[in-house]
Amino acid sequence: MDLRHARTFVTVADLGTVSKAAARLHIAQPALSRQIRDLEQELGLKLFDRVGRRLVLTGEGEQLLGDCRSLLNCASSIGERAQQLRRGDGGILKVAASPQFIEGTLSGFLDRFTQRYPNVQVKVIEAIAWSDTLGMLERGEIHLGQNLLRVVQPDDPHFASHPLEAVDLLAASHAPLMLGKSGAIEIAHLASQPLLVLDTSFLSRRTFDATCRLAGIEANIVFESRTPHTLLAMAESGHGVAIVPSAVRIDRYPLHIVRITDGGKPLREHLAVFWDKRRSLPSYATAFCDMLAEYVREVFPISRPSEP
């Protein structure tokens, strides 16, 4: 099978239209359509049905899609391995991470890594939801992806992880909150406040919701956002209490910050870096994980409860 045909097939399947796929691959639409026809003739199968302006995978196409992704990943791994052999400790490292992790952690860490590996070009890609990171890992578009540790089971056959430090859920408010011990507030006391929360694409939000359900609490949510700093700006203006992870920088906002607890225990999640076991990692990617874990131990939590 021609790798160009496999790449075209996967790209059309991902984007759903010939025009978008042609733009992504930088080829003319007629040439792309011809590649799809050639692949169908080679395989003796119809791969797409046209539904309106979109191309939808047939049942046979669905079954072949995963195999073609694996083929492209293998080809990419061979190229990367050859590059490693030629350049030793040099190459490209693609890392996906959340905006708050990029701002609070990677922005300070990258200089340290570059000093150790000056010939490695790190390309950082912003990813909010785990589904975005998962898709990029499966398509071989990134080497490493950062998220909460529990998004992947320890015995997962496809993905391995390097654990990082934990993040706590914090409440940030323009006005002081009723505190418990050690600068913390029980979620039962917090729920009646007007709450500014991340949307449900964030696992930290789902952790907050699940804790409320288990405690029989109905949270007073007045605003949702995909951007933690939007919540903090709203809190600064007195519109409610922002619920954000401790990996977010809050020091630029004049807010009172407390840790959220449930039964005296903090709402806490560990972070991790993930990679696809089916794809060989460059040695500098493994070093990146080790050095990042060390750096995170030094700087976490990025934001802490306010002093009494």
TrEMBL record:
<protein>
    <submittedName>
        <fullName>LysR family transcriptional regulator</fullName>
    </submittedName>
</protein>
<dbReference type="GO" id="GO:0003677">
    <property type="term" value="F:DNA binding"/>
</dbReference>
<dbReference type="InterPro" id="IPR000847">
    <property type="entry name" value="LysR_HTH_N"/>
</dbReference>
<keyword id="KW-0805">Transcription regulation</keyword>
<keyword id="KW-0238">DNA-binding</keyword>
<comment type="similarity">
    <text>Belongs to the LysR transcriptional regulatory family.</text>
</comment>
<dbReference type="GO" id="GO:0032993">
    <property type="term" value="C:protein-DNA complex"/>
</dbReference>
<feature type="domain" description="HTH lysR-type">
    <location>
        <begin position="1"/>
        <end position="58"/>
    </location>
</feature>
<dbReference type="Pfam" id="PF00126">
    <property type="entry name" value="HTH_1"/>
</dbReference>
<dbReference type="InterPro" id="IPR036390">
    <property type="entry name" value="WH_DNA-bd_sf"/>
</dbReference>
<dbReference type="Pfam" id="PF03466">
    <property type="entry name" value="LysR_substrate"/>
</dbReference>
<keyword id="KW-0804">Transcription</keyword>
<dbReference type="InterPro" id="IPR005119">
    <property type="entry name" value="LysR_subst-bd"/>
</dbReference>
<dbReference type="GO" id="GO:0003700">
    <property type="term" value="F:DNA-binding transcription factor activity"/>
</dbReference>
<dbReference type="InterPro" id="IPR036388">
    <property type="entry name" value="WH-like_DNA-bd_sf"/>
</dbReference>
